[in-house]
Specification:
heterodimer; A: mainly alpha; MetI-like fold; 14 helices; B: about 325 residues; alpha/beta; 4-stranded antiparallel beta sheet; 11 helices; globular; binds adenosine-5'-triphosphate; binds magnesium ion
């Protein structure tokens, strides 16, 4: 297991290297560039040339990449030219990453907390009204565009519930420790601050959770249907076990493998959805930074954020694979 | 009053847009403590459905169940889901056909044994573990303590079936139903499992319903045999009588289709011709008629009734095989 983990982490290093090279080239191949973005179309050729030189963009791309790698190894990923000009890319990452992680994490918690029980219930009452209704509902959940739902939540529900629609927290002078505002509030025991941050998160998280919820729901339902037909469930019934024991120990435990896989794969969709959600709710997260970064061709910030998103995706899926072994002894003892 | 009295048990499967299908049709049999009763017949004749009906394990939707299943005088079919849950595993145990798929692959054997003890005998986990080790030992699993923490895929087929037997007998139920417990195992293991069942049933005075399509199993184990065809009992007799003198052409055919050592040299095996697909509905006559060597015109015109032909034998046939008076074959 340990060796497996180490091997996967080494693979991750390879993935990051290849990805950074591709991204590096691809970003520079995009039309326009930071110089036009900063100076506008009507700048004089002289000023353009000066800025190009200053940013090091006049050198051959290979040289640029090697220099980037060298500096990256010491933690220097360059300076932002568009998102927050002058700040280092790392600084921006550290500021914004916690916001997106908080948002995505809450979204996945909502999706799992609702999707698994409802999926179980739908399977158990297969063909009944609850099943039909929730399957139809989950289809709608997948079909409705995230930003549309986000706008509906923001413009309709927030007023009704008295929830904030902007930013991560009201300016209440909360202490910063980790950059995760809810976590900070809890560890400093500033409960008001934690609650306030949570209120800012809840609507965007709901908007972001719909697709993963629908997917988790459907996969759980299908997996439970499969497991309910298994002989060992009949054995469990023949022992006279109570329904909760059969549900937890025999049905759900066996149905979890595909569900866990799905959750891992959904992290990709979550990061994509976060871009839209953060825009609607003006959340200063990675998604928002990516959007601005693309508009202004902020190479260093884009590069670092996309690489880090990839790292998160790979690490989450590694955790998923490791949890297989936890769930299924046939993998553990092979 | 017998321990288990099954009377006119009837199971009809209903599906939307399909003809209702009668899988079990007025099946009756009794089982006394310490007695082994066999249900024998080809695939699809309703053996498993009968046992699941007795256990209360048929799907609640889509299956209409008639008749009575009296256990110590209580009709199990009239019990609530909750009352039945209290009895399953405690009063009635069941062993299934495929030991690998019948065990939960992701939890240790130990838990699968102890959970039934915790449920019905109120044992705390620790005490149940000691008891489980004892149970595994009793069913002949070597090194039981280690096995408790292992998973089904780490056991051999024979050991898995032993574990299932340990589970079914954990709370010392007075009735055990074994649904083809040896079909998934190879021959030497089959014999061991049968010997084990026989021994346990004798020791504990358990009533055993043995479901099988294998007459060899019947010969070794059963006191009374019910031969099922198309959901109905076509012949019921004591084991010795049945083997000495099969009267229903179907039973006769079953016996003739197994190889015997004492058969004259050169005698050919004669399998029953056709398949269950040829059956006619019982309402029109005898379901077996299209495959029956003894069939008469009446067989496809009138449904044969079950008759008591003496010697504790019940028969459902218009033209049974005539008893041979001269030669007695014992098994
Ligand atoms: N849940 C169900 N719904 C509809 N039909 C069923 C159901 N369960 C069983 N049947 C049908 O009932 C008939 C009897 O099935 P059963 O499983 O009792 O056969 P069996 O005698 O145990 O055969 P085998 O030796 O193959 O186990 C079969 O034709 C089967 O298709
Ligand atoms: Mg069967």
């Amino acid at each position: 297991m340990l060796r497996y983990t180490i091997r996967r982490l080494i693979q991750l290093v390879g993935v990051v290297l290849v990805l950074s090279l591709l991204l590096f080239a691809w970003l520079r191949a995009l039309p326009g560039g930071p110089v036009s973005a900063l100076l506008g179309e009507r700048a004089t050729p002289e000023s353009r040339e000066a800025l190009t030189k200053q940013l090091g963009l006049d050198q051959p791309i290979f040289v640029q990449y090697v220099k980037f790698l060298g500096r990256a190894l010491s933690g220097d990923f360059g300076v932002s030219t568009g998102v927050q000009p002058g700040d280092s890319a790392m600084e921006i990452f550290l500021q914004r990453f916690p916001a997106t992680i908080e948002l995505s994490f809450l979204a996945i918690v909502i999706a799992v907390a609702l999707g698994i029980p409802l999926g179980y219930l739908a399977a158990k009452r297969r063909g009944g009204w609850f099943d039909n209704l929730s399957v139809a509902g989950s289809l709608i959940g997948v079909a409705v565009p995230v930003f549309f739902l986000a706008y509906v939540l923001k413009d309709v529900l927030s007023a009704a519930l008295g929830l904030p629609t902007q930013g991560r927290q009201d300016a209440i002078g909360a202490t910063r420790v980790t950059g995760f505002f809810v976590v900070d509030g809890v560890i400093t025991q500033e409960w008001d601050a934690a609650l306030n941050a949570l209120e800012h998160l809840i609507l965007p998280a709901i908007a972001l959770s719909t697709i993963p919820f629908a997917v988790v729901f459907r996969i759980t339902r299908a997996a439970v249907l499969d497991v309910l037909n298994e002989d060992f469930v009949r054995t469990a019934e023949s022992k006279g076990l109570t329904s909760p024991v059969i549900r937890r120990r025999h049905v759900l435990r066996n149905a979890m493998l595909p569900v866990v896989t799905t959750i891992g794969l959904q992290t990709g969709a979550l990061l994509a959805g976060a871009v839209l959600t953060e825009k609607v709710f003006s959340l200063p997260g990675v998604g928002q930074a990516l959007a601005i970064g693309f508009e202004r061709r902020d190479y260093p910030v884009l590069l670092l954020l996309i690489i880090m998103a990839t790292v998160v995706y790979v690490v989450v899926n590694l955790l998923v694979d490791l949890s297989y072994a936890f769930i299924d002894p046939r993998i553990r003892t092979r | 009053m017998a321990l288990l009295e099954v009377r006119d048990l009837t199971v009809v499967f209903e599906r939307k847009g399909e003809q209702p299908f009668t899988a079990v049709d007025h099946v009756s049999f009794d089982v006394e403590p310490g007695q082994t009763v066999g249900l024998v017949g080809e695939s699809g004749c309703g053996k498993s459905v009968t046992s699941l009906a007795v256990m209360g394990l048929l799907p609640r939707r889509g299956a209409r169940i008639g008749g009575t299943v009296n256990y110590e005088g209580v009709n199990l079919l009239a019990l609530s889901d909750r009352e039945m849950r209290d009895r399953r595993g405690r009063d009635l145990g069941m062993v299934f056909q495929d030991p690998l798929s019948s065990l939960n692959p992701v939890i240790p054997i130990g838990v699968q044994v102890t959970e039934v003890l915790e449920r019905h005998r109120d044992m705390p986990r620790k005490k149940a573990m000691v008891e489980a080790e004892d149970l595994l030992d009793k069913v002949g699993i070597p090194d039981p303590r280690r096995r408790l923490s292992e998973y089904p895929h780490q056991l051999s087929g024979g050991m898995r079936q032993r574990a299932l037997i340990a589970i079914a007998l954990a709370c010392r139920p007075r009735l055990l139903i074994a649904d083809e417990p040896t079909t998934a195992l190879d021959v030497t293991i089959q014999a061991q499992i049968l010997a084990l069942l026989k021994e346990l049933v004798q020791d504990m005075g358990t009533a055993l319903v043995m479901i099988t399509h294998d007459l060899g199993v019947v010969a070794g184990l059963c006191d009374e045999v019910n031969v099922l065809y198309g959901g109905r009992v076509v012949e019921k007799a004591q084991r010795h009588e049945l083997f000495a003198q099969p009267r229903h052409p179907y039973t006769h055919g079953l016996l003739n289709s197994i190889p015997r050592l004492d058969a004259p040299r050169g005698e050919k095996l004669s399998p029953i011709r056709g398949s269950v697909a040829d059956n006619i509905p019982w309402e029109q006559g005898c379901a077996f008629a299209p495959r029956c060597p003894n069939a008469l015109d009446v067989c496809v015109q009138r449904t044969p009734e079950q008759e008591d032909v003496g010697g504790g034998r019940l028969l459902r046939c218009h033209n049974p095989v005539q008893p041979v008076v001269t030669e007695e074959v014992s098994v």
